[in-house]
Please model this.
Amino acid sequence: MLPFLIVLHILISIALIGLVLIQRGRGADIGAAFGSGASQTVFGARGSASVLTRATGVLAALFFVSSLALAYFYSQKTERRSVTEMTAPVSGDEAPTGPADLPSLPDETSSSSEETLDQGGQQ
Model:
């Protein structure tokens, strides 16, 4: 159902874009009114809506409905899980066993830092 809705939504959007680009703007008749003796008024009533205008309205309504349907189906599809369930389980070979796996520091570094602290405290 979801792939069908996605294809339908894409087709509706392409048709809607095409219909909007085909139509003339409202101000397209202004130039004709001032020089070619057009019978329509410049900003007067447009009369009944043309077929393209009605088709654009129908496609806009279908686009809105398909957008809502896609949002609904995508929200139903997702599973809600906690963050701890999303982590991948660690196998027994990779799991840390304890402090033995941690790298140890050389003894010289730890003893020299203790000596430095002792000398600084005596001065």
Remarks:
- Residues 19 and 55 are 8 Å apart (CA to CA).
- The mean pLDDT is 74.
- The helical segments are 2-22, 28-35, 51-77, 83-86, 107-122.
